[in-house]
Amino acid sequence: MKLPRVVYRFYERRLGRFLVNDLPPDKLPQHIGMMVDGNRRWAKLAGAPTAHGHQAGADNILQFLDWCEDFGIRTVTLYMLSTDNMNRSAEELSQLMGIIANLLDRLAENPTRRIHPVGALELLPEYLAAKLTGLAERTHGCGGLVVNMAVGYGGRREIVDAIREHLRTEAVAGRSIEEVADRLEIDDISRFLYTRGQPDPDLVIRTSGEQRLSGFMTWQSAYSEFYFCEALWPDFRKVDFLRALRDYARRQRRFGS
After folding, report:
1. Which of 104, 234, 210 is nearest to 226 (CA)?
2. What are the tens digits of pLDDT across the range 126-183?
3. pLDDT tens digits, 9-60
4. Which of 205, 197, 185, 189 is nearest to 245 (CA)?
5. What global pTM score does this model have?
6. Which residues are part of the catalytic machinery?
7. What secondary structure, in 3-state letters, does the chain show?
8. In whole angstroms, what is the distance from residue 140 CA to residue 197 CA?
9. β-pairing, 114-118 with 225-228?
């Protein structure tokens, strides 16, 4: 049974007070990976075009980022478009790229956030790749919330790209392949990832009821906590976000065991 909105507001405020007043700051994640899944199903259930679902999802992202700032989250990675999604119809991709471009324009209105592209920009239309690159350059010095836009992203491709860049760097330094292999360390890969210099995600949230990573931050999520929510992304509410934070805060994190 669906509860009245006023009940959810009360529950939301109560959860918010618990997270702010009853928890030490280190109990909340500093980096959240957000898999914004379910836009297409949401549109289908609403009897609306697929693009309507993608637009509703983009609108919800703006609210979500505000919620993250409310609770002191420092970094968010948004899984917007995977390399596998690039196989969708040309019409849907064109509409989705336009919606992402419009979202970037709206994100640019906030002067404090740093926008960072995460993905293979060469797979994107030139105008969208240029918009991502330009926004990243303009916001590089911003000290607020870091928003990683995972567009044209694949976790396996990221690792391959990191290894490729590492090998090229070593080749420029004049080292042989045998030397590179003998010296190879975990950090040699990490320092060439799309998210280089950033902490790995503490918490990965996926909406729509699916319980898999689908190639999202394959390397970085090795020790992340995971939270799966039944709500489709456009229906993801602040109370759902607070539940995810509460669940994370109650866990005893174990690294390597």
Report:
1. 210
2. 999 999 999 999 999 999 999 999 999 999 999 999 999 999 999 999 999 999 999 9
3. 777 777 777 787 777 778 899 999 999 999 999 999 999 999 999 999 999 9
4. 205
5. 0.92
6. 37, 85
7. CCCCHHHHHHHHHHHHHHHHHCCCHHHCCCEEEEECCCHHHHHHHCCCCHHHHHHHHHHHHHHHHHHHHHCCCCEEEEEEEECHHHHCCHHHHHHHHHHHHHHHHHHCCCCCCEEEEECCHHHCCHHHHHHHHHHHHHHCCCCCCEEEEEEEECHHHHHHHHHHHHHHHHHHCCCCHHHHHHHCCHHHHHCCCCCCCCCCCCEEEECCCCCCCCCCCCCHHHHCEEEECCCCHHHCCHHHHHHHHHHHHHCCCCCCC
8. 13
9. unpaired
Structure tokens that stand for 215 in this block: 């190639």
What tokens appear for 157 in the block?
Answer: 């491709």
